[in-house]
Amino acid sequence: MSVIYITTPIYYPNAPPHIGHAYTTVFADVIARYNRLMKRKVFFMTGNDEHGLKIQRVAEKEGVSPKDFVDKMAGVYRQYWQALNISYDYFIRTTDSYHEKVVSESFKRLYEKGLIYKAKYAGWYCVDCERYYSPGEYIEVEGKPYCPIHNKPLEWLEEETYYFKLSEFKDYIVKLLSETKIVHPESYAREVLSRVQAEGLKDVSVARPRERVSWGIPVPFDPNYTIYVWFDALLNYVSGIGYLTDESRFNEYWPNVVHVIGKDILWFHTVVWFSLLKALDIPPPKRVIVHSFLINRGLKIGKSAGNVIPIEFLVERYNGSDGARYVLMKLFNLDKDVEVTVELMDSIYNSELADTYGNLVRRVGVLALKKVRGKVYRRDVDKKIEESITSLLNKYVEDMEAMEVSKALSEAQELGKILNTYVNEVKPWERPDPSKELYSLLEGIRALSIMLSPVTPRASSIISENFGFPLTSPAEFRVGQIERYNIVDAPVLFKKVQAGREKAGGQENPPGS
Ligand SMILES: [Zn+2]
To answer: Does some domain include residue 288?
Structure first.
């Protein structure tokens, strides 16, 4: 049986998740659900990155211990993922003791191999980023170095610290980036490659003095130091499937890992992660799928840009998780940033889910109930419909295998439109016995519901139950498989959204923006 291990980045829970987190997580969930539909063995992992200075500080501000704070936030994240119907198999937390042991042991091994060493460091440091910036990386404001992300002055810091010998892995990284297809789309691999070739690789700090950062995993042989949060966090991808604890499980899943990441963490998930794995004698991941961002008014959506679209808003406005998921996946893009507005999301939801799919299902269901009391027996399927189902389902599978979810949804849309046109053409309501037409339409609806099921799992299962057909694997789908449909209800799946509800001064503004 083929296996897929799919991961999201683990999220830093200093604040609740927003649409950007949802974008990544829903995509990973859709890939997981599609692969389960194809009857593959799937392990889908998400979770939280719980150590580090920022957490330490937020907890201090709230007057609670860091552990209490991250416990609470793990609950918050789980609630959001439930609201979006995320079907993760495991929620990893970096404060779990087995993970801490893996990090500690890995650190020790690299030290013993000479790949981690102690040395003095001095440089410009951003407290919010928890990292140093070298010349060329920071910006200058009135001659003073500023953080390019936080746009505030950097602090000059001098400390003894532990370093990871990233510089040793330059040839290895260049080879992986230029000779393999791990990074997808390939343009991202080229981007990293040219940076590596232009700048080379410098050793990176992997620990912080304990007096500065206490909330983290101690360096096992030097308790005056805390292991840097990035080293700790990256290792979640291997600790979560049994690295150093369950060898057979690790060996089953690791060769099939697919990481889903946003382009902002591309460097870490290629150069740093591939090197760290190599240092631990672990092969590189199978795939790193990189996506671009949702932007609003030209800026990446995020807390600092002040243009956050709350997940609650999506779920409420688009009729629960299905609508929210669909809208996000239709917008999803690997290569280029997508400008998102409420108006655009409304129009996707209304035309594709409410009109094309929802309306089709409702019309055909009502007709079947009226004309043949819901029982539709097998007939020859209209040739044109049969051909459309087969060819669009094939294209859909091709797209989904290439993880082109948005494209796959367009194939589903096309089938929905063909079926709606067919209803208008054959007018089943005018026929004494429209069984052939209804059966053809139901076979189309069955295919369409299967195609949409990774994205709109609730709606697909409601229709499968009310119309009496199983959601089979696309690979096993044959037109004419169903002997008899038994329609018991024709529910309204998606209520239309009234445009303009959120209009403020002629501009669409989501709450919180
Ligand atoms: Zn910063």
So the answer is: yes
Q: Residue 318 falls within a domain, yes or no? A: no
Rg from Cα positions in the chain: 26
pLDDT digits 0-9 by tens, 301-346: 777 777 778 999 999 999 999 999 999 999 999 999 999 999 999 9
Q: Are strands 294-296 and 338-339 parallel, antiparallel or unpaired?
A: parallel
Distance (Å) from CA 128 to ligand 1 centroid: 5
CA gap 192, 190 in Å, rounded: 6
Q: How far away, in angstroms, is 133 Cα from ligand 1 center?
A: 9
Do residues 182 and 288 make contact, with C-beta atoms less than 8 angstroms apart? yes
Ligand 1 center to 366 CA (angstroms):
58
Phi-psi region of 208 (alpha: psi -120 to 50; beta: other; left: phi over 0): beta
CATH number at residue 429: 1.10.730.10
Give the domain range for residue 403: 351-486
Task: Report CA(132)–ligand 1 centroid distance (Å).
Answer: 9
Structural domain tally of the chain? Answer: 3
The set of catalytic residues is 18, 21, 126, 129, 147, 150, 300, 303
The answer to whether the predicted template modeling score (pTM) of the entire model surpasses 0.90 is: yes
- Residues recorded for the chain: 513
CA distance 145 to 152: 8
Q: Which residue matches tokens 């998930």?
A: 269
User: How crowded is residue 25: how many other Cβ atoms within 10 Å of its Cβ?
Assistant: 26
User: pLDDT tens-digit profile of 217-227?
Assistant: 999 999 999 99
Do 120 and 192 sit in the same domain of this protein?
yes
Q: Please give the Cα distance from 414 to 423 (Å, whole number).
A: 15
Domain shared by 303 and 376, yes or no: no
Together in a domain, 478 and 377: yes
